[in-house]
Amino acid sequence: MQLEIQPTGWSCLPTSVSMLLSKYIKQHKVDNIFDFLHHDGGEIVYPGLREPNGRRGFTNNEMIDYCLGLGYAYLVYDFKPIVMAVDNQGEPIVTNLNFDKDKFLQTHDAVLWGAFNGYHHAVAWNSTMMTVYNPNGKIHALPDTWEIEFGAIITPLGNIKSKF
Hints:
Elements: H1 12-21, H2 30-37, H3 60-70, E1 72-78, E2 82-86, E3 92-96, H4 101-107, E4 110-116, E5 119-126, E6 131-134, E7 138-140, E8 147-156
Antiparallel strand pairs: 1-8, 2-3, 4-5, 4-8, 5-6, 6-7
């Protein structure tokens, strides 16, 4: 995996995807994703919010489409899965399920996305080195205070199988 620096404050997700793809496609760059999507995520959608929170940014669906176009699967794991039902009075019941985050991190290189210091942020995760490849230009340990919301693995379409 090659460290790549995000070109804008709102492009951490596609930059992290690009870093993971560099395992398979040498010299892959985030600009390839921008070209495919025909945007750089910079449109201001919420003008009253601090940077980069007001920007359009990117979605997992866009990353799925991009990866599928290259012959790779982008498989998303919810780190906080829930099940929901409606009780007999019509009120929602929500049950949190357990997810083995440590096992996932030990077995999968992935894009990790979550909340950190008041911002949502995405990074690439190297399971061999147990380190974060942060698109802000640093390689470091996973901060304890980071609330991971999902992880996504990228694999060639012919190699889809679970390591669990």
